[in-house]
Design brief:
Helix content is 38%, strand content 18%. By secondary structure, it is an alpha+beta fold. The protein has three domains: 329 residues, 3-Layer(aba) Sandwich (Beta-lactamase); 95 residues; 136 residues, no CATH class. The strands form six sheets. It has an eight-stranded antiparallel barrel with strand order 17-18-19-20-21-22-23-24. Helix 3 packs across helix 6 and helix 13 runs antiparallel to helix 18. The N terminus is likely disordered.
């Protein structure tokens, strides 16, 4: 029933004629109805909201509770919410401030600014601040240690980055792939050129001049602000209070701020870098910061200097989203309309919800009036080349978290010979072709773009609204479907070998004595194969237990998982043993053909299991 009410409230709001943001009564009524429904539907403890209209703060409001046990309501003026990656805007603003002072150059090799470590020269082109600001340095993603459970992991930025420097996996400026560590490097560069910690710099040159008195990047939150910090919650049948989330690489996501304070930053951005008498950025520098830098495809939103391009409905919108485990936030400004919105939720179920709220806000006050481009007539054979699996390029390639890439897959199939069905983990949407590389969402102007290689083969897909990642078409040995099927085969073979094989041997020994029993494989030969698959079973169970809560890996590698990684190393020995014993097994005619065939399958599958484990970085201690 709650889902139905939420759906109806949104649908009905979108059926009304476009409203003016200047109608403050309508604005408050609409946001009240929308957020009240969202909090109920998503079981969210609380939310904080701010809306700017015509360059003025028009609406600030709190919903629900900052502390359920104490029944403390959310106050938009004083309640601090963790804003996650919106913190990155402080980094990018700081970079542009130093560019304006001539201390930084957006086109210079960042190695000229680094002292504690250097970026390896793995590609001909060096990484620049321009690449960091557009998430195009070509780094892999790193997840392990991104969060911490206590302050003991809060080390100097240079120390953290030297230890966690991500591998370079593609040339700079090739494609965007959202990078926390890239932003961390930029913050470290600020420290190098100013001689200040980034915390001190942000307070002196951003927070204090903007009068953001209820905001901080410090962890834990300073004592004077701690009483105003919202609790974070997880929903599992009921709302459960969670501990404070420490972010060791703090400039990329550690800030806490009130909705009212965030309007000060938004107003500065809307006023070309000025807030009252304070100039956050001069207008020329700010114009560069919000300018377009790169487009993956003509039909998709561009990359800008630090800002995410959130444009939709034909209206330019820039800003940033931010997510921790328990808090989910969005800051968006509409420069052409001198308007902006900030929204934050304090419960894990709010993930992605801020996008839904922003879309509803845009559809009501800035509806898309552009006529739908007609679908291009095509054949099924033409559409077939787009079918397949597409993997988000934001994942780790060098450590055990590579397996998370299995959960960021889009599956594309031809539907009714006229359109594509794009299936994500949580939904399926349909797209019709409008030109040779562009598809429009059915009944909407939202688009996806496709890219071909030099042979005319489809290799990439681009989300029209969010340009901070690329979807790579995968097939063959990289296909998730292949790996899923291989895993199912290996698990099935493991269960047969570990449980069914011994049971059959016992039955034969008891009930089939005599010559038939002599044709079975010797116990020593069987034992090596049985031990191999027993180790594989233990490994599989160990991983499932160690990662029962997959979020834990972001805090560090669990001890059980570290111990479990010993098992694949032992499997190298058992695989070698099977291969050694395979030769006499195949040569001997005294063993039954099916026994020899089964042992051949076990031996070859032993090699396959090691390849599988190595592919996902479980062969060795890669973390």
């Amino acid at each position: 029933m709650k889902k139905l009410l939420f759906f109806l409230s949104v649908v009905l709001s979108l059926q009304l004629p476009a409203q003016s943001l200047r109608d403050t009564t309508d604005l408050e009524s609409f946001m009240d109805g929308l957020l009240t429904a969202v909090l109920k539907e998503k079981n969210i403890a609380g939310a904080t909201l701010a809306v700017i209209v015509d360059g003025k703060v028009t609406l600030t409001k709190g919903y629900g509770f900052a502390d359920i046990d104490k029944q403390i309501p959310v106050d938009p003026k004083t309640t601090l919410f963790r804003i996650g990656s919106i913190t990155k805007l402080f980094v990018w603003t700081a970079v542009m401030q130093q560019v304006a002072l001539g201390k930084l150059n957006l086109e210079a090799d960042i190695n000229t600014y680094l002292k504690d470590f250097k970026i390896p020269d793995e590609f001909d082109q060096p990484i620049t601040l321009k690449h960091l600001m557009t998430h195009t340095p070509g780094f892999e993603d790193r997840v392990i240690g991104l969060f911490a459970k206590d302050s003991t992991k809060l080390l100097p930025l240079g120390t953290i980055l030297k230890k966690e420097l991500p591998d370079r996996v593609r040339p700079p400026f090739t494609h965007a792939s959202y990078s926390n560590h890239g932003t961390g490097i930029a913050a470290y560069i600020i420290e190098q050129v100013t001689g200040m910690s980034f915390n001190d710099y942000a307070e002196k040159f951003i927070l204090e001049p903007l009068s953001m008195k209820h905001s901080t990047l410090r962890q834990p939150v300073p004592a004077l602000l701690r009483k105003d910090l919202s609790k974070g919650y997880a929903f599992k049948n009921s709302l459960i209070e969670k501990n404070f989330e420490y972010v060791p690489l703090y400039p990329v996501g550690a800030a806490s701020a009130s909705a009212a304070d965030m309007t000060h930053l938004m107003l500065a951005y809307l006023n070309n870098g000025a807030y009252g008498d304070f100039t956050l950025l001069d207008s020329t520098t700010f114009s560069i910061m919000k300018s377009e830098v790169k487009r993956h495809h003509p039909a998709v939103n561009p990359m800008r200097y630090g800002f995410m391009d959130l444009s939709q409905n034909g209206v330019t919108a820039i800003g940033h989203g931010g997510d921790t485990f328990w808090f989910h936030s969005l800051l968006a400004i509409l420069p052409d309309h001198n308007a902006g919105l900030f929204i934050s939720f304090n419960t894990d179920t709010g993930g992605g919800t801020y996008i839904n709220v922003f879309e509803a806000f845009m559809d009501r006050y800035f509806p898309d009036t552009t006529a739908l481009q007609p679908a291009m007539p095509v054949t099924k054979e033409w559409l077939d080349k787009f079918s397949g699996e597409y993997r988000m390029n934001r994942y780790t390639q060098s450590d055990i978290t590579k397996i998370a890439s299995l959960f960021s897959i889009a599956r594309v199939e031809v539907k009714d010979s006229t359109k594509l069905a794009v299936t994500l983990p949580d939904k399926t949407e349909y797209y019709v072709p409008v030109d040779s590389s562009t598809f429009r969402k059915e009944f909407s102007n939202d688009r996806i773009g496709m890219a071909y290689d030099e042979r005319g083969k489809v290799v990439f897909a681009f989300d029209g609204l969010l340009s901070i990642f690329v979807l790579e078409k995968v097939s063959g040995l990289e296909s998730p479907a292949f790996h899923n099927n291989l895993l199912i085969f290996l698990i099935t073979l493991t269960l047969v070998t570990v449980f069914y094989w011994p049971m059959v041997a016992i039955i034969r020994k008891r009930y089939l004595p005599g010559p038939m029993a002599k044709t079975t494989l010797p116990m020593a030969i069987k034992s090596v194969a049985w031990l191999h698959y027993f180790l594989f079973l233990l490994f599989f169970i160990g991983v499932l237990i160690a990662l029962a809560d997959p979020l834990e890996i972001a805090f560090g590698v669990p001890g059980l998982l570290k111990a479990t990684l010993v098992l694949p190393i032992l499997m190298i020995v058992t695989t070698f043993g099977m291969l050694v014993m395979l030769i006499p097994v195949l040569r001997s005619n005294r063993f039954r053909v099916r026994s020899r065939l089964y042992y051949l399958i076990l031996s070859l599958s032993g090699i396959a299991s090691l390849w599988f484990l190595n592919y996902w970085n479980f062969l060795g201690f890669k973390f």
